[in-house]
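Slide 14.
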Amino acid sequence: MKTGQEYKDSLRKRNIKVYVKGELLDSESLIDHPFIKGHVNSAAMTYDLAHDPAYEDLMTVKSHLTGKTINRFTHIHQSVEDLIKKVKMLRLISQQTGTCYQRCVGFDAVNATYTVTYEMDQKLGTNYHERLKKYLAYWQENDLMVAGAMTDPKGDRSLRPGQQADPDMFVRVVAKNDDGIVIRGAKAHMTGMVNSHEMLIMPTMGMAPEDKDYAVCCALPVDAPGVLHIFGRQTNDDRKCDGDIDQGNARYGIVGGECLTVLEDVFVPWDRVFMCGETEFSGLLVERFACYHRQNYGGCKGGVSDIVIGAAAVMADMSGYGKANHVKEKINEMIHLTESLYCCSIACSAEGKPTASGAYYVDPLLANVGKHNVTRLIYDIDRIAQDIGGGLQATLPSEADLKHPEIGKYVDKYFKGVATVSTEDRMRMARLIENMTGGTALVESMHGAGSPQAQKVMYAKLSNLEHKKKCALHIAGVTPPASKGTQETKEAR
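Slide 15: predicted structure.
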């Protein structure tokens, strides 16, 4: 298993093309760029914690393929216990970083692909599952960070992939030969892509037979020929170039460092192709991935919310109102909301079941409920934190003002809280709350792992409304009304 430093060193060996604010960065300078180094540091934590004896039970596991000890982020879930430990691991790392550490998407992608390729092979006689197992062994042996790549730009959302004015709005296969396939298109909002080793590409939606060129799943290096990445902007990202106080979470950054990944006629050998035109399984792969990924959010957002709760409580103490009853009540409400998020992730894991492949899968309804809770409750948690933190977090002068030889004394004097706490420390805490409760962080809570509407669609599919209606009719002593067909038959008689 890699250490955090070995992970960082391995990134410098790539030949990746990344544009940041219009500037092309090379692999050597990329991970030290102010916009990116925080994301690298948070991902490195997933490696370092695996070497800490205190956390080895959560962070490491025996590979079901090789029997070797591996980082859990490269594992295929073999039990309910694995599913539960995954959620606990995510909360732990979030408590250590206060942000996204970017390995979850690839982790969920390979678990989903593992289960679907097995079922695809069983029905269609393909050999995708064996290919995936060989790739997985390589992934585990080298302790790779693999970005999951599902979201396509999509273009006109009213049209299917093959109906778009520009056919590249969804990733598609444009050529095949004896050696492999050639793909073209782009993947959007790619978390951790620029500091990953490889990417696992999946279809973004269930594909109809006429869209078979878009039903593709494959793996390739992030620096493969024809691949380039355009790094996205985040709230207040230019502050990362101006010292560390104004950043809030200077060491680990905010969310996951998303980018647009462009695939311009990229060759992928057959041994890295795990779906190619099998449209009837594309929707299943999307659904499996979505549920695995939605499982996460009570764990990772629970851990992030732990930091927000702590920051709000510390800010109250620094300002002199930490013992006020209304503040204590607000802190308790934040705790209640956070644990509500967490328990849903634990519940969907505890209700997990084995798939035909032997790998375990979460309860899909509860996983969707958990993620949908995040789209609401995080806003409540963050609203209370902003309430407790006060207007200071929005109107503070800059770090440069605090350290200015003429005006610094005024900033220090008039932004002080309790006498025993330095103004600088109070500013740091205010900026942390600002960083974690606004802008990019909130949007990610809303749309990461799918929008709220995506979860509602799954509710309709999974909640078994007809069973609920039958239960109500039985309890009320009401005979179910005959179906139209049954009634017509009776009348005919």
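Speaker note: Residues 294-465 form a domain with the Butyryl-CoA Dehydrogenase, subunit A; domain 3 fold (CATH 1.20.140.10).
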